[in-house]
Predict the structure.
Amino acid sequence: MTQPTTIRRVPGPRPRLPEPLRTALELAATGVPVLPLRAGKVPFGNCPACAGNACGGRPNMKSAGPCRCPGVCHAWAAATTDPAVLTSPAWATAWHRAATVAYHPGAAGLTVVDLDDTAAVAWARETLPATRAVETTRGEHWIYRGAMASRNAVRDGVDIKSAMSYTRYLGPGTGTMTALPDAVRALAVKDPATARPAPHAVAVPAGAGGGECPHRTPAYLDRGIAMAEQRITTARSAVHATVYRTFLAVLSTHGRCGCLTDAHVARLFTAAQTKGETLRHCTDAWTNARTRLGL
């Protein structure tokens, strides 16, 4: 009796990933949260309700609109390192239509000084510490290690992109990345008179009572940071909310006198990340607390 012929399907080659998606996955694997951009450097929505910025985001704004979706889905808030999200059906069309890839610097612990023209580049070379530089169409991106608040137009041709912002990925750049300097942090302060002093400064005017700022007492400040760390570490539920409330409490007490240093902030971030918070969540919670207090 003749045996039936078995037809075997020969698997064909896997569909080739769009170039922007391949780049995005490579960046995500290094811990850099990414998102697709369409023509004009405009972000896609992360769900059907956000198509065409229907969620409230405006084409020329680089901040999240008043989205009502179940999860974050617009502009910098859509940036992710999760390959399952990046390759999900919800984003498939976006990657095929994407003109380029963007990333959220603040969530990666980075700050980008966007120098729009040759005059701005010349100013940076005379004013700021050298760091990794990436060529752009008209100028350069200077990338520093460390996150801060973002602010556009800090001077002619200069924007700062870090927390709650996104910027295009234009390649790895050249040069050694250095730590975020106080000179860059000061650029984001609207009123230079309120700029945070360098960590080694000790003389800070008090309020109406006169005398030295009590937060300058090492034991007072150290005890406050230790209590904040403990509050985060011992949280058994609602960790994200606890982190935000703790950051808010620390900033309400110590945020206006300039006594907090990067080392203090790093202790709080470390405590939060030990409880499972991501760097992105820490950065966003810190920035939101500063915004609420008007800092």
Residues 57-66, 191-212 have pLDDT under 50 and may be disordered. The CA atoms of residues 269 and 282 lie 6 Å apart.
